[in-house]
Amino acid sequence: MEPLIHIDGVSKVFGAQPAIDSLSVVFEAGRLNGLVGPDGAGKTTLIRLLAGLLKPSAGRLRVAGFDPVAEPAGLRDVVAYMPQRFGLYEDLTVMENLVLYADIRGVVGTERRQTFERLLSFTDLARFSERLAGRLSGGMKQKLGLACALVKVPKVLLLDEPSVGVDPISRRELWRMAADLVGQGIGVIWSTAYLDEAERCDHVLLLNQGKSLFSGPPGDLTAEISGRSFLVRGLGSERRQVLQRALKHPSVIDGIVQGANLRLVLAEGAPPPTPAELGAPPTASLDPTPPRFEDAFVARLGKRQTGDSPYAAREALGTAGEVTVEAKGLTKRFGSFTAASEISFAIKGGEIFGLLGPNGAGKSTTFKMLCGLLKPSGGIARVSGFDLMSAASQARGRIGYMAQKFSLYGDLSVRQNLDFFAGIYGLAKGGVPVIAKMVEAFGLGPYIEVNAGALPLGFKQRLALACATMHDPAVLFLDEPTSGVDPLTRREFWGHINALVGRGVTVVVTTHFMDEAEYCDRIGLVYQGRLIAEGSPDRLKARSRTGACPDPTLEDAFIGLVESVERNGRGHDAT
Amino acid sequence: MTPRDRLRRLTALVRKETLQIGRDPSSLLIAVVLPLLLLFLFGYGVSFDLRRSPICLVVEQQSAAASELTASFLASRFFSVQGAVTTRDCQEDLVAGRVNAVVVIPSDFANRLYARDPAPMQILVDGSDPNTAGLMANYISGTWQTWQAIEADSRGRGVAPRLGVTARYRYNPEKESRNFLLPGLVAVIMTLIGTMLTALVVSREWERGTMEAMMATPLSVFELLLGKLIPYYLLGMAALGVTTTIAVWLFDVPFRGSVLVLVAVSTVFLLTTLGQGLLISTLAKNQFVATQAALFSAFLPGFLLSGLVYEIPSMPWPIRLFTYVVPARYFVPSMQTMFLAGDVPGVLVPNSLALLVIATVLFAVVAKKTPKRLDG
């Protein structure tokens, strides 16, 4: 029998750059097929090729028995596609969007009524059917996009990064829906940069630079490195320093911070290092742990990270132990809606504090009040003792800010961007040596005249960090700094952050990425405008440990905590 | 795929577009607010006629003739008169532009008049704006001649000129500039809707990724384009209706043509603007570039090179040549003819044919250039 999707030697070249490079792979029906890889790996291009939106430069492609280019009409009847930006009309309501897609796909009469009923209950959007799509939260938009793609039951469902910018709760729901569809015999292609999602797919195509690194059940890839993943426990407060030493150890090919512990992956056949070799305290122990897909992915790429950072060489700030960022009863009201209510916490120098929460919970509002972008309706936000409202300029001089996504000037060269930021931080005269140091430290030299928009992703990230830290801030604010970034770039980025923190810089970070949250010393979980939990990642995990779930991940903890508030809230309503 | 399916899809697209127009502030701004603003600006504000122009009347002699002449200047609706005793008094006002002209009735006015001096009085006109200066000179000498005739008549010395020239302005006897401005303005308003708004909404679909989603459905490119054309055609025609009604009812612009011909000629013009809008949006896939392109390739030429504001025959020849590809150049005179003269085939037929040619070329290019996939 012909497989559902047959990709045979397909290439797609833009300009001189191949986005897909002679790829051959087969996807079967009734399976959840993960399309995994870092940004720029060619995921979107491949999905567009499958949807007949792009014409392959070479090779043969068959989707559900059709040639996507020669037989677009037949193909589009059986293929549903949800693009990265959902394809929703934001100024139409939920129902109007559904009706539009139903009309286009010729779903009418009783069939339409039943379909809508099923989709609205499936996505839990029935309550919002009259709401404009633009007013929905990220997670709900995603579900509506899915519903619109499903008005006619397809043979193939193509989902391009459906979980980007979606909180863990919505992500899990979306995942459940996809699994449900697979159960009905639909072939689902789910593209993602989240490697933890890849682990749950039936079949994974691991793409890197347009080529297949691996194709098969995810377990096969992780099995390759079984026995090589270890957790270093009992490190006390020294885990970041130990990580730096561990990454220089010849046996270690990968290492990340995971809550209070370190996760290490060893080279093939290498003996595990002793805690003493890593310079860890005597209380430390090295225990084997089941490998994860990400461990295997990094091992496959075979590139070593060094953990070195130019920031490590700078002198300490001497702020360790001092409170550098303080929120006291922070409240923000938009009209009658309270986005943030009575939020209080204190962050010490040399600490990484993570703000987590579902979409629309008030996490961004809190974050923006902390870095002075939004005026609180009540309460105080202080940075290094300065009130962000009354002493804004002093406070801002101590802040470095790295915005979500890439917010440098894409049409300016690397040098021009650096010059510009040196100028706005008032480094006009002293800026030249600082810029030279940044260029050298981050290896930006070869790219100095390249426009920032044309940089490889990893270098964009480095440039953004260089611009945000040029004036040597005491506090660094990071807004979803590595969303959509590949694991290697993410590791490099956190290497720099760890070095900054080592000098006493305070870091405040918002993220949907549980891996990123694991790097934090403490996490504040925001839900419905309130701080519902605060503590180290391990403490939060411990709080949601149950008989059914003895070793919860941070994501489990996150969902558990939000759901318990939800239950308590409803309990109140009932009484 | 049955025709019924096609019809349902098309209806769905048109309904979607209509809902969006109603909910999107920028669409409402371009389709409703801007046209009304232009209409009232041109209807009330902008006028190429002189009405109550400030002049200074220097009366150096207190004779019966002098005061009669003064009275007829005061009575004229063309002037707003301020009096003075010596020329020096109002010299400064003339220099500062506070008055457009100075009329001097000299101390020997009566003597010169009876001595049949051909120039018994002096007129000083501010010539910085030649257009105004010419009009001022004409109006003043007109007033002077009228007074002279009446004066001669009243003395019974009916030295009626043997040959009299009487100017009669046909089609626009009141010489109201808004009578030809407002019909021409319809061209600008239709360009706003047909080109600017269409280019904007199509490029928005590219920008927001909805175009990509639509292309992955069974819709054909042809249906997608038609789904844009129909609502914006209807919107353009609605604008025509509203503009014409306001021009005729509120501003008393005559309408001497027939509604049927008006709709037919406007349809051909609207097609050229829609074609241009679609063409822009297939080339520029972001809203900013699309708006700029529409502004410079359609809106400004429609205003400046259509004969609405500046006379085409008095333009330098390279620009005159360029006006032949500006659709509004054929539509503005057609509209002015239909409003002021009526259905004159000699004007309407060649202009409409020219528009039809432009529309055909534009749509041929659009059909060829519109991508059927993301990579063309």
TrEMBL record, chain A:
GO molecular function: ATP binding; ATP hydrolysis activity
UniProt KW keywords: ATP-binding, Nucleotide-binding
All copies of domain ABC transporter, residue ranges: 5-234, 325-553
Protein name: Multidrug ABC transporter ATP-binding protein
Species whose genome carries this gene: Telmatospirillum siberiense
Nucleotide-binding in keyword set: yes
InterPro entries: AAA+_ATPase, ABC_transporter-like_ATP-bd, ABC_transporter-like_CS, P-loop_NTPase
Gene3D superfamilies, alphabetized: P-loop containing nucleotide triphosphate hydrolases
